[in-house]
Write a structure and sequence with these properties.
single chain; TIM Barrel; binds sodium ion; binds 3-methyl-2-oxobutanoic acid; eight-stranded parallel β-barrel; about 270 residues
Length: about 270
Amino acid sequence: RKGRLSPGDIRARKGVEPVVCLTAYTTPMAQLVDAHCDVALVGDSVGMVLHGLPSTLGVTMEMMILHGKAVARGSSRACIVVDMPFGSYEEGPEQAFRNAARLMAETGCQAVKLEGGRHMAETVAFLVARGIPVMGHVGLTPQSVNTLGGYKVQGRSHHEADRILVDAGTLADAGAFAVVLEKLPAALGRRITQEIAVPTIGIGAGVDCDGQVLVIDDMLGLFSEFRPKFVKRYAELGASAEAGIAAYADEVRARAFPGPEHVFGEGNPE
Ligand code: KIV
Ligand code: NA
C-alpha cells in the first residue's frame, strides 16, 4: 500500500476489518507502530508517561505539536491522530477550530481527537465541515477526572449506559470518523459498536469494539505507575532497561567498562 491511511479509510473499516491503534510520541516508536498499526495516536497520555505529570490536565498545545511532529517524521502509512489538550477546545467551535487547525498545520497529522459526548457534537460538526477530521472519545474521559471523581469504569448503571450510547451516536451523527470507548463494561462496548455507524476503538471496552487502542508505554511495560486491568503487557521493556542500567553501573564502578574493544589506541581500528 502506498501513502497514508486516511480517516475515511478508517471509517470504512466498520464491519470489515479491525482497526489497530497504538499511541506513539517519538520518532523511533512511531517507526515501529507504523509498520504494524493503522492509527498512530499522539495521545495526551504523553504528559503522564513521558513528562511525569500527575494527570493529562497539564498537557499543552506546544507538547502535542512537538510530539506530533516527531511521530509524523517516523511514519508514512499510519493515520496520525493528535489529541487536543485540555483547555484547547472546550470553549466553543471557534476556539476548537483555531487550535485543531494549528495542530494539523504544524504536525501534518490527518485528524484530531477530543473528549466529550453530546456537548461536543456542535464542535465536531464545525471542525468536520471546515476540513478537520475528528475522532471522538467517550466513557472514561481522563481530562474530566475531577468531575468524574476518579478513573472508574463508566456506564455501569442503565441510565449511564444509555447516556454514553447517545453520546457516541451523537458524535457519529455529527461527523466523527471513529469514537474511542474507554473503560466501559464489555456489554456496553458491544451495544455501542452495534448501534453507531462509525468504528468504535476500545480501550478497556471489550473485544467486540471495531478496533483497539492501548498506551504504548503501558503495553510494552515501560510505564508502571498504575496498571489498569485492561492493559495487557506484551513486553517488559522497563525491566529490561533496569537490568541494562544496573549492569552498566556495576561495570563502571568495577572499571570493567569500557573494555579493550570499546577504546581507541595503538593498533585499534575505528
Ligand atoms: O491519550 C491517550 O493515550 C488516549 C488513548 C488511551 C485513547 O486518549
Ligand atoms: Na487522550
